[in-house]
Specification:
Blueprint: H1 8-19, H2 23-45, H3 48-65, H4 75-93, H5 126-129, H6 133-143, H7 148-159, H8 164-171, H9 175-202
Helix pairs in contact: 2-3, 2-4, 3-4, 6-9, 7-8, 7-9, 8-9
């Protein structure tokens, strides 16, 4: 995950001030990290009011848990994980992480194993598509169309950068189950973005 960068000595002093309960230090934390944490929450929950609630939950968790934070770790990464966990708790409470079928979005194959409706242009990986600004926006829109149970797995692995083990722990499933869900989410996303590839291929 992200590193806060800068002078590690300064960060250790900053963490020490937070752990000592200094109000000015917590205000600095909100000022320096709040916008990034809110951006994470917006990606995860897709609703501004809920994202703001998640951010508040995250800061409350930070306040309670800062005494257990190890200064040798990345403060930015720790805050990121707390924010993601706050979002996952909200999504679970709203039953938005329940398993939902996405079979209609997955590629179909005939009895000979040939894909039905093969796109006219080669489908690139989502990572390649993120290089162009227009495609990046389009990809995010299509990711948001996935059911939350699949969208969150895709975000955790391909956008937020967590490992399979970390993502599985956060979602609360076995690594094998997460890998299957991730594979299906990527396949469904490719189906969703094919119209843009056709458009680019015929432009």
């Amino acid at each position: 995950m992200e590193s806060t960068g800068g002078d590690p000595t300064d960060e250790r002093a900053f963490v020490a001030a937070l752990q000592a309960g200094e109000r000015v230090a917590f205000e600095r934390l909100v000022r320096e990290h709040g916008a990034r944490m809110l951006a994470v929450a917006r990606r995860m929950v897709r609703d501004e009011a809920t994202a703001q609630d998640c951010l508040q939950d995250a800061f409350l968790s930070v306040h309670r848990a800062i005494g257990r934070f190890e200064p040798t770790g990345s403060l930015g990464g720790w805050l990121h994980r707390i924010t993601v966990n706050a979002c996952l708790m909200r999504l679970r409470a709203n039953k938005r992480l329940a398993e939902t079928s996405i079979d209609e979005l997955l590629p179909a194959f005939d009895p000979d194993g040939i894909r039905i409706g093969e796109p006219r242009t080669e489908i690139r990986n989502p990572e390649d598509a993120l290089e162009a600004a227009r495609i990046r926006v389009y990809m995010r829109q299509k990711i948001d169309e996935l059911p939350d149970g699949y969208r969150i797995v895709l975000l955790l692995r391909d956008i937020e950068g967590y490992s399979t083990r970390e993502a599985a722990e956060m979602v609360g499933v076995a690594e094998g189950a997460l890998k299957v869900r991730l594979h299906r989410a990527r396949a469904a996303l490719k189906t969703l973005v094919e119209p843009l590839w056709d458009e680019l291929g015929t432009a």
